[in-house]
Write a structure and sequence with these properties.
Keywords: Membrane, Signal, Transmembrane, Transmembrane helix. This is PSI domain-containing protein. By secondary structure, the protein is of the alpha+beta class. Helix content is 25%, strand content 27%. A 4-stranded antiparallel β-sheet has the order 8-7-4-11, with no helix packed on it. Strands 6-5-10-9 form a 4-stranded antiparallel β-sheet, with no helix packed on it. The protein is elongated. The N and C termini lie far apart (135 Å).
Length: 232
């Protein structure tokens, strides 16, 4: 169902939230009552979702962020892999440019619901993202921004092309594997030692069983039955 222009004007008039007071991504997205989202375009700013057929206004699809998790690694400060993917930032990964993504949304009002989606996008620049040695976290976000009786539900999904953790030379999960390799080898060696010790104990027990002397069994004693006198 498409919303008519007079209805959109009424919706916009009732949307009184002021998101511009939030100057940081984290405070912007944690204020769930405000109907705010973070737009990375032009240096980043907190914007109020618009009650229209274009709820995110002029913000590009690649610049929309709805999840406060995406703010934990301060992507507005750590703007390069060298600054983001450090051993001192173990909960952050650098997501390289050309990651693909999509944004879909629905606008629900007392008069009905309309749905839409933005064109698929690619990140023109890399971004510092929350994650670990096993990959970025929170690459899919589903959020409902409520303003009075109206609600804008949106879903943002990002698929990384490549990412780096703790350094910028070895991509994706190989670095985590290299870090974990010594522990894996040690665990394998301990498991092998335990297995060998168990086999040795079993072998020693078997030798003891065979070494126990067996007492000879005495022959049976013949039973002599007495014979009575013979008849002449």
């Amino acid at each position: 169902m498409m919303l008519r222009k007079p209805v959109l004007l009424i919706i916009a008039a009732r949307a009184a939230a002021d998101c511009s007071r939030h100057t940081h991504c984290g405070s912007c997205l944690s204020s769930d009552q405000d109907g705010c989202f973070w737009c990375y375009d032009n240096g980043g700013s907190c914007k109020r979702v618009e009650q229209s057929l274009s709820p995110f206004g002029a913000c590009s699809a690649s610049g929309i962020s709805l999840d406060a998790m995406t703010c934990e690694c301060r992507p507005d400060v750590y703007t390069s892999c060298e600054w983001c993917a450090k051993a001192s930032h173990p909960s952050c990964v650098w997501m390289s440019a050309n990651a693909t993504g999509s944004v879909s949304y629905s606008i629900a009002t007392p008069l009905g619901t309309t749905r839409g989606e933005l064109p698929p996008f690619r990140l023109a620049q890399g971004r510092c993202w929350a994650g670990s040695g096993f990959g970025p976290a929170g690459t899919t976000a589903n959020t409902t921004l409520r303003l009075g009786e109206w609600a804008v539900s949106a879903a943002v999904s990002v698929v990384p092309s490549e990412w780096y953790w703790a350094q910028c030379s070895v991509q994706e999960g190989w670095m985590a594997l290299l870090v974990a390799l010594p522990s894996l080898l040690l665990a394998a060696a301990l498991a092998r030692c335990c297995c060998l010790a168990k086999r040795r104990r079993a072998h020693g027990a078997a030798l003891l069983v065979h070494a126990v002397p067996v007492e000879p069994v005495p022959p049976p004693v013949p039973v002599v039955h007495p014979q009575g006198p013979r008849n002449a």
